[in-house]
């Protein structure tokens, strides 16, 4: 998943004598480009994932360094490299603490390093990795769209993933994502990638079919859930006006079954948006797992209206609250006392209502077989409303 801070450090630790000072939780931050800057003006045009490099010439005071770090954090930069030994000799402790707190990688290289050579080196690696990411994305989309045609994707993915191992799809979306123009969506994509902590080359992130897609290979399921929650937290902190929703599909062995995980993640992210719930795991959704994967929405609508339309019409005309009463009755397996307690209603009133309800729906609701269609109808109603 892109050229990361980790990749850079592995190359630069010896070649450029690079040292990692702070912000280690941003170790897996992706790098979109490398900028040399001596003031903060250009940061206003950052899209996200930019790596900033500076000699410190334009930041003579501690307050200047803190302002720089805040601006980089605000504009979703992937990290900061300081060229020490000429204009700055000692990195302020406050700067280190801020970078640790905000997971902003802070690194140094000595003055003897030729920054132009280093920046060129990193920029070429970013470009090459971007090309590789495009090929990976195309192959993964082929695996999702045409899983039976393994020749179109398996060989391509073999050099990047354990294609026989486990795969799991995580989808991220927000209101209006599909309506965004390409530039706006790309910026948001870059920013979200900065929030995806501690996941590097065993995953791929891209936009597809109205969602951001994260395909994870050989990643523990619990880790993926924690990653989703962490991404939501970071997004809420750094982009408070944005509400992200995450759906997590089932874990499946072999890339040939990636499409199954994707379709289930699609259902889960739909559930997340419908319920306004930040993270939904498909495997924990009970009967909704079946309902959200039904390909014909008209069938669901029919199963709802066939059972509940008469009661809904009666409620609209008489304000009787019969739909709510029936839902509680089914929830409590026919216990009149439990329904009375939940609805704060006298037991005799519940008995009277249930008598009328049974006449309207023309069912006594005495057996599990009689109750099941109405229980499913309420599931569908809750899903579609």
Automatic annotation (TrEMBL):
<feature type="domain" description="Purine catabolism PurC-like">
    <location>
        <begin position="18"/>
        <end position="122"/>
    </location>
</feature>
<feature type="domain" description="CdaR GGDEF-like">
    <location>
        <begin position="161"/>
        <end position="270"/>
    </location>
</feature>
<comment type="similarity">
    <text>Belongs to the CdaR family.</text>
</comment>
<dbReference type="InterPro" id="IPR051448">
    <property type="entry name" value="CdaR-like_regulators"/>
</dbReference>
<dbReference type="InterPro" id="IPR012914">
    <property type="entry name" value="PucR_dom"/>
</dbReference>
<dbReference type="InterPro" id="IPR042070">
    <property type="entry name" value="PucR_C-HTH_sf"/>
</dbReference>
<dbReference type="Pfam" id="PF07905">
    <property type="entry name" value="PucR"/>
</dbReference>
<dbReference type="Pfam" id="PF17853">
    <property type="entry name" value="GGDEF_2"/>
</dbReference>
<dbReference type="Pfam" id="PF13556">
    <property type="entry name" value="HTH_30"/>
</dbReference>
<dbReference type="InterPro" id="IPR025736">
    <property type="entry name" value="PucR_C-HTH_dom"/>
</dbReference>
<dbReference type="InterPro" id="IPR041522">
    <property type="entry name" value="CdaR_GGDEF"/>
</dbReference>
<protein>
    <submittedName>
        <fullName>PucR family transcriptional regulator ligand-binding domain-containing protein</fullName>
    </submittedName>
</protein>
<feature type="domain" description="PucR C-terminal helix-turn-helix">
    <location>
        <begin position="322"/>
        <end position="379"/>
    </location>
</feature>
């Amino acid at each position: 998943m892109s050229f990361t801070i980790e990749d850079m450090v592995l190359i630069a630790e010896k070649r450029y004598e690079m040292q990692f000072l702070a912000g280690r939780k941003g170790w897996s931050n992706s790098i979109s480009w490398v900028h040399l800057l001596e003031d903060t003006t250009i940061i206003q045009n950052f899209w996200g994932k930019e790596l900033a490099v500076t000699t410190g010439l334009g930041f003579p005071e501690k307050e200047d360094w803190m302002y720089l770090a805040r601006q980089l954090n605000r504009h979703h930069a992937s990290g900061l490299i300081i060229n020490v030994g000429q204009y700055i000799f000692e990195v302020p402790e406050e700067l280190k603490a801020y970078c640790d707190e905000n997971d902003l990688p802070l690194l140094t290289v000595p003055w003897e390093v030729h920054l132009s050579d280093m920046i060129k080196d990193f920029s070429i690696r970013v470009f090459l990795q971007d090309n590789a990411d495009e090929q990976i994305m195309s192959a993964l989309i082929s695996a999702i769209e045409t899983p039976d045609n393994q020749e179109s994707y398996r060989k391509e993915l073999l050099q990047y993933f354990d294609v026989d191992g486990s795969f799991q799809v995580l989808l991220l979306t927000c209101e209006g994502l599909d309506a965004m123009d390409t530039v706006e969506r790309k910026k948001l994509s870059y920013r979200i990638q900065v929030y995806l902590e501690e996941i590097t080359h065993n995953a791929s992130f891209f936009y597809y079919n109205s969602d951001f897609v994260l395909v994870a290979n050989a990643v523990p399921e619990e880790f993926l859930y924690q990653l989703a929650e962490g991404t939501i937290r970071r997004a809420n902190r750094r982009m408070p006006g944005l509400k992200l929703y995450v759906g997590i599909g089932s874990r499946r062995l072999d890339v040939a079954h990636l499409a199954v995980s994707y379709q289930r993640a699609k259902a889960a992210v739909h559930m997340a948006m419908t319920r306004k719930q930040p993270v939904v795991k498909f495997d924990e959704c009970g009967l909704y797992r079946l309902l959200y994967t039904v390909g014909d929405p008209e069938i669901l609508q029919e199963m709802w209206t066939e059972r509940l339309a008469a009661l809904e019409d009666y409620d609209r005309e008489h304000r009787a609250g019969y739909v709510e009463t029936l839902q509680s009755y089914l929830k409590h397996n026919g216990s009149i006392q439990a329904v009375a307690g939940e609805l704060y209603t006298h037991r005799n009133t519940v008995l009277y209502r249930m008598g009328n309800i049974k006449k309207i729906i023309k069912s006594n609701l005495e057996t599990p077989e009689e109750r099941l269609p109405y229980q499913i109808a309420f599931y569908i109603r809750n899903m579609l409303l």
